[in-house]
Write a structure and sequence with these properties.
The chain is mainly α and 408 residues long. The protein is built from 17 helices and 3 strands. Strands 2-1-3 form a 3-stranded antiparallel beta sheet, with helices on one face. The mean pLDDT is 83.
């Protein structure tokens, strides 16, 4: 945060000259007024005096803080509040020790707004990085006077969500790396190795089998159109990424991922796990079920699942139980629906939803493990088959020639 040099008078009339950290001159004046300092001159920081990190954050060159930093901040804030430290002092402590520049700047801004009399929820809702779910839970915690326990639940929720996200990523990362390396190897074979065999075959004037001719034609295509292929891949990737950012593209992509072989159930159960745990966290914090469902739907990444659960929320608004509309969703397991029904009837819906989320997370872990075991051999067999086919096709004329010479 920029440091403004100021000249003024303290409350006892003594002349003072020092620095104050603030986003703008206006904020600097507010801070000084709260400290009973009458400033008659405030100098903005010179370019070379500015903090480079702060400058990069201000100009948007550094990314906002991530889930890991938010989890740490939430956990530390809950510990300090539980220890009886006033909220303002908690924020000041965390701001001083925070190493992430983006989060440090955000905590400072929240501290200033809380000093002005705003609630913690209102202050956080104006900052990037605190989503609707986070702010709603903080609001519920402030209203009920249980902010420390709510923050503990929030930290646990964020840790579970991050763990699930990492598990899904791990299931996709290794196969993607193997495929990428395999493509590079095949490209290298076609552009560097195969042409050398072609030169040898042309010099020997041997008859070329059709299999070898196919590989040679593919190799010529790779060599002649390499730049075109690279440009096509880059353009196709950019088009795809931009298309799935549109409303229609996102919906079509989400529907495809849900129905995709092997990965479909992983996507579905991952989203349902997130939904049930979020709903359980909201209900246990005392947030009404209608508001909880709305926030849960907003936090879902899959638009098709969000659309189906929107129908559930509408049914609940009409006075129906949550179990009835959930049972109409084809991919929602009947056993899970029955568990939620028991939770509703006993008045322990939040506790039952936690158990449901645990079940989904266990199933996701099992799916990730099975998927990795299944996908790895398939990729290796396919890539190995392609590489083997290329090598056999290139050596085939040599083998046929050697066989013909032995017959003579």
């Amino acid at each position: 945060m920029p440091k403004y040099k100021y000249f003024g008078f303290a409350a006892d009339g003594k002349k003072i000259e020092s620095f104050v950290e603030a986003d703008t001159i206006r904020d600097a004046k507010k801070i000084l007024r709260r400290q009973n300092i009458r400033a008659f001159k405030i100098q903005p920081p010179a370019f070379f005096d500015a903090d480079i990190g702060e400058l990069l954050v201000e100009k948007g060159f550094l990314k906002p803080f991530g889930r890991a930093e938010l989890m740490r901040f939430t956990r530390q804030l809950s510990i300090l509040i539980n220890a009886g430290v006033p909220i303002l002092e908690c924020l000041e402590i965390l701001q001083k020790q925070e190493q992430n520049i983006s989060l440090k700047r955000v905590i400072k801004s929240i501290t200033m707004q809380v000093e002005e009399g705003k609630s913690l929820n209102d202050s956080m809702s104006q900052q990037q990085g605190f989503d609707k779910l986070y702010c709603a839970l903080v609001k519920a915690g402030e209203a009920a006077g249980i902010l420390d326990s709510i923050l503990v639940k929030l930290a646990e929720f964020l840790e579970k969500a991050e763990k699930l996200k990492k598990q899904v990523k791990s299931a996709l990362t290794y196969p993607a790396i193997v495929v990428f390396v395999g493509i590079i190897v095949i490209f290298g074979l076609m552009t560097f190795v195969v042409p050398q065999f072609v030169d040898i075959l042309k010099e020997s004037n041997q008859k070329i089998p059709w299999v070898t001719q196919v590989v040679m034609d593919v190799s010529d295509f790779f060599i002649n159109y390499t730049i075109f292929l690279i440009a096509l891949v880059i353009a196709g990737t950019m088009f795809f990424l931009n298309y799935i950012k549109t409303e229609q593209g996102k919906q079509e992509w989400d529907r495809f991922t849900m129905s995709a072989p092997l990965f479909g159930m992983l996507v579905i159960k991952g989203n349902l796990s997130s939904f049930t745990r979020t709903l359980a966290t909201m209900l246990s914090a005392g947030v009404p079920i209608i508001d909880s469902l709305e926030i849960c739907i907003d936090t879902l990444d899959n638009t098709q699942i969000a659309k189906d659960l929107t129908k559930v929320r509408k049914a609940v608004i009409e006075g129906k139980s949550i179990t009835e509309p959930l049972s109409r969703i084809s991919y929602f397991p009947p056993l899970i629906t029955q568990m939620i029904k028991v939770g509703e009837s006993t008045g322990n819906l939040d506790q039952m939803l936690i158990k449901v989320a645990d079940v989904f997370e266990e199933e996701v872990e099992e799916l990730v493990a099975n998927l990795t075991k299944l996908v790895e051999p398939i990729i290796l067999v396919v890539l190995g088959g392609i590489i083997g086919f290329v090598l056999v096709a290139m050596y085939l004329p040599i083998f046929l020639s050697a066989g013909g010479m032995s017959d003579q």
